[in-house]
Design a protein that fits this description.
CATH superfamily: Flavin prenyltransferase-like
Order of helices and strands: EHEHHEEHHEHEH
Shape: globular
Number of domains: 1
Helix content: 40-55%
Largest sheet: 6 strands, parallel
């Protein structure tokens, strides 16, 4: 059985990256445990016109496949325990507030606690920050997390593929995340491929 991935969506701009990652994992029958911060729900509404409530039923309407949604304050959820086996966690997009909370071990909500558990268990943690410009605290927190074993994958699309649509830009970034997760995909053409 394939171990699930935890996917977190925070209040940084770029909610489409998180939604596309979840869709791509589900297309491959990879189970997803989904966490969305309060600000993440706001961005989903603002950027993607999500207007439904914050419930498992809402998630079931948006995604097809093995996805489980947890309310952000449910610190008793399975993903809050190291005994719950996962492949790891991706936070996409990752706000600087969430990144800071993880870097300091704050665990103020389920998403931060799940990330803390992933780090303490030595599992894979990928953060896709979406902020510009960056100041010293942002950079120091990223460096701190990298030293703890996390991988930072900034939301920086490439243009050498001459993207023709927003979807192609999004797929490139999601593809870069999947590369780090070691999950095969065909979301973009690799450099040197014909």
């Amino acid at each position: 059985m394939t171990k699930p991935w935890i996917v977190g969506i925070t209040g940084a701009s770029g909610a489409v990256y998180g939604v596309r990652l979840v869709e791509t994992l589900l297309e491959r029958d990879i189970p997803v445990h989904l966490l969305i911060t309060d600000a993440g729900w706001r961005v989903l509404h603002e950027e993607l016109d999500w207007s439904a409530g914050r419930r498992q039923e809402t998630i079931a309407e948006k995604f097809t496949g093995p996805v489980r949604y947890y309310p952000i304050q449910d610190i008793g959820a399975s993903v809050a325990s190291g005994s719950f086996l996962t492949s790891g966690m991706v936070i996409v997009p990752c706000s600087m507030g969430t990144l800071s909370g993880i870097a300091t071990g704050a665990s103020d909500n389920l998403l931060e606690r799940a990330a803390d558990v992933v780090l303490k268990e030595g599992r894979k943690l990928f953060l896709v920050p979406r902020e510009t410009p960056l100041h010293a605290i942002h950079l120091e927190n990223m460096l701190k997390l990298v030293r703890m074993g996390a991988r930072i994958i900034p939301a920086m699309p490439a243009f050498y593929q001459k993207p023709q649509s927003m979807d192609e830009l999004v797929d490139f970034m999601v593809g870069k995340v999947l590369d780090s997760m070691e999950i095969e995909h065909q979301l973009y053409r690799r450099w040197g491929d014909s």
